[in-house]
User: What shape does this take?
Amino acid sequence: MTEMSRSLSRQLGLMIDRRGRVSHVIVGDAHQLFIPDLGRHRAGSGRFRGLRLVHTHLRGEGLSRDDLTDLSLLKLDAVIVIQAQVNGMPGFVEVGTIRPGAARGDSEPWNTERRPSIKAWDEDYIAFIEDLESAIGRTSTVKRVPGVEAAIVIAVATGRVDEADASLDELERLADTAGLQVLDRILQRRRRPDHKFVIGKGKLQEVLIRAMQLEVEVLIFDGELSPSQLRNLATDTELKVVDRTQLILDIFSQRAKTREGKLQVELAQLRYRKPRLALMPTAMSRLSGGIGGRGPGETKLEINKRRAGERQTRLEKELKTLSKQRALRRNRRRRVGLPQVAIVGYTNAGKSTMLNRMTHSTVDAEDKLFATLDPTSRRLRFPESREVILTDTVGFIRHLPKDLVHAFKSTLEEVQEADLLVHLIDASSPLIQTHIDAVDKTLAELGADTTPTLRVLNKIDAVDNAHWPEIKAAHNGILVSAQTGDGLDALMLQIERHLFRERASGSLDS
Assistant: This one.
């Protein structure tokens, strides 16, 4: 083998199973081998593929990074390099195997050993590999949830690392809400994201190895991937690749219950996917043409794009109709003279719980992101037979997809038309100011930043009461707990004073 490799000036490789049978003969160039598709073979949870790669090197080098990456990604029993000397005789041999405990992410996930000659290897190779496989099975510490896809969340820090880390925490919660099991998180610090893969090529290889070790099916990137980045990552990793926008859209799709909510989510998904259809793999070949058709006919991609455009037009028309109906209901309430109060805030700030507590309702309220999508309105009664309409709205979040904001326009009109906004803030969160800024930014985009607003600091039951004065002074809000009811009397008083005094002042002025 080494003599032939030297005469051809090419690397030669053999894939050998545990019975000693050769399954593949591979001819590379002077620098590397290109391993063909090996199929699934016997690779599974805690098991190797049952194949070892034995190949030659020509330049006196040992195992390369590519060799070790192939070892991990393909779950090979071993990768063995034999040096082909100038005279064609075999030189030193180097063996790489996966290291037990590598799934915990400690240092390098492989072991390497060099010996002066292939003849110096006198151990029972099969017994060694089977013992190694058993050891790896015993040291596996990851407990998979049956029937749930596993994921790794990934972010690039171009600024402050603590902010990127907090954003990654939120991405984990989003993944959990979407029904995924997050097994690992990776944060890379870079001056700017890589234009092709977001993270660096070397880091991407590490991610792939980690995904193999944990048997992960999904990679989730914090931030929105461009169509080309999405295609590059999916092609290179052969894993499901999802960005933050796609994850949020998926959560909205799961949570939408009313017809309007479902239409809004579908419209947002169409807007997100439409520009990405153009960069799908070229395997989407010609579908129509032939008898009765002129020219080469349409490709399947063109048909998909056209159908997506037609569906988008229909959805926009239906949502316009529903928006008019919603506007009629709002006008009807205005003619009755009922003021409108909208509860806004960051997702999972406790808006639905607050609505339930104030109006004695039973709206679904869960400790999950985006538990409520469809706005719910209830009457809130004050003394002296005064009433207002209190509306729970969809939660905001950092980097809320623009397609969602546009699609939920008719729903968010409840915020634009409100007489008063109750900005609910999670006082127990370490990112209070970040959440406030995200909500304020979204309100400005909706043109509701001039609407009178009451800041309400919720979840004080989860905060040490010694810190209450400090939090209240820092964020200028009313302290309440929607869970226990503490502080709600003060909030009701502020709402009543604001609405009805403002109305009384307006009547006197007119």
